[in-house]
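To illustrate the input format used throughout this study, we show a single complete record. The first block contains the structure-token representation of the backbone; no residue identities are included at this stage. The design step must infer an amino acid for every position from geometry alone.
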């Protein structure tokens, strides 16, 4: 999955121009949602996607005018008939796309997208506010990044930043939102900037082959880790983002675990589960789950506490992993695991039955 902010930061730092295309309004049942974005480069190539097919081709063509005139543009598409058949938006609908020229001599844009990329790498969240208007010059202060502690980067041409209550109200959207103010005030597009949720799936066995595609379907990036190449390979895991083949105890040296990381421990044995959990509880990951029985959990926890690992660190581990839905088959267990991951991602309490002593 392409990190548009990282790509923009890299382009601007190297002195290259781009046009940021973003879906700001969508009516009808189209797979590409509001907030989906891509970059069009000067040579016409596209980084990321907003739907592919005819829609993306037309957007890339219109972007050339943004390069030439150095001004924003709002494109309106009604995807029906032939256009629908040529795009990924098979259900059709109405889509508005906002084109913004982002050039390296716009120091505010460079600062905003560099900060956004830095926050994502650090596992932190923020909100990006963007003025939406036809014909805005590319050097206008049209975007502002608001961090969780209230600090800001950039500005909005003094059009709304003087009203602190507005900024606070718009600073924490649950999803990308086009805010239409009363009277003749400016349109503002508010979108969360946050790291992608990444599942580090330790163990490439049978259950993991069902977990991986299912968790991809619900929006996680997936990295599979195992010490056996005959299990951890693209034939068994064709759609995951990364496969790492190495000893489990060495894997954490190759991973960037942060507050948007999720760890599922589904290895082939107690020794490997113990080795992974020993490292996992030292991270600031959003979630740790370990497969196995209550007896297995007790043995592993006792062993780790004898090593000096605090009980409080083990208390945050979800074990047995998955919601209690009575799962028995590998497919059902995968469903229970992914359901728990979704619940954890939504930051909702995961309800489990009390542990019997």
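Output of the design step:
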């Amino acid at each position: 999955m392409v990190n548009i902010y990282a790509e923009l930061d890299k382009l601007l730092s190297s002195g290259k121009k781009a046009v940021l295309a973003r879906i700001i309004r969508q009516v009808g049942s189209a797979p590409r949602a509001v907030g989906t974005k891509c970059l069009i480069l000067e040579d016409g190539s596209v980084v990321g996607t907003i739907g592919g097919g005819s829609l993306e081709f037309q957007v890339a063509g219109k972007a050339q005018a943004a390069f030439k005139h150095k001004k924003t543009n709002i494109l309106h598409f009604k995807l029906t008939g032939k256009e629908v058949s040529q795009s990924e938006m098979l259900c059709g609908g109405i889509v508005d796309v906002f084109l913004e020229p982002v050039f390296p001599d716009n120091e505010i844009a460079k600062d905003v997208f560099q900060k956004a990329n830095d926050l994502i790498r650090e596992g932190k969240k923020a909100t990006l506010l963007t003025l939406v208007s036809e014909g805005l010059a590319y050097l206008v202060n049209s975007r502002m990044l608001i961090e969780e502690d209230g600090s800001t980067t950039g500005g909005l041409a003094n059009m709304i930043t003087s009203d602190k209550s507005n900024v606070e109200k718009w600073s924490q959207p649950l999803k990308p939102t086009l805010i239409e103010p009363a009277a003749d005030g400016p349109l503002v597009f508010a979108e969360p900037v946050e790291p992608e949720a990444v599942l580090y799936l330790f163990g490439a066995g049978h259950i993991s082959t069902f977990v991986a595609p299912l968790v991809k379907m619900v929006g996680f990036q997936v990295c599979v880790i195992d010490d056996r190449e005959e299990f951890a390979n693209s034939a068994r895991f064709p759609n995951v983002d990364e496969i790492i083949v190495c000893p489990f105890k060495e894997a954490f040296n190759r991973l960037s675990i942060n507050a948007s990381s999720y760890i599922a421990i589904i290895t082939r044995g107690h020794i490997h589960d113990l080795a992974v959990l020993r490292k996992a509880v030292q991270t600031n990951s959003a979630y740790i789950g370990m497969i196995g029985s209550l007896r297995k959990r007790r043995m592993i926890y006792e062993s780790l506490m004898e090593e000096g690992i605090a009980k409080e660190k083990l208390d945050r581990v979800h074990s047995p992993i998955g919601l209690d839905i009575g799962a028995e088959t590998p497919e059902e267990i995968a469903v229970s695991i992914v359901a728990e991951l979704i619940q954890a991602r939504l930051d909702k309490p995961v309800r489990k039955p009390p542990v019997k002593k």
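Structural context for interpreting the output: The chain has two domains: 4-193, 198-345. The mean pLDDT is 87.
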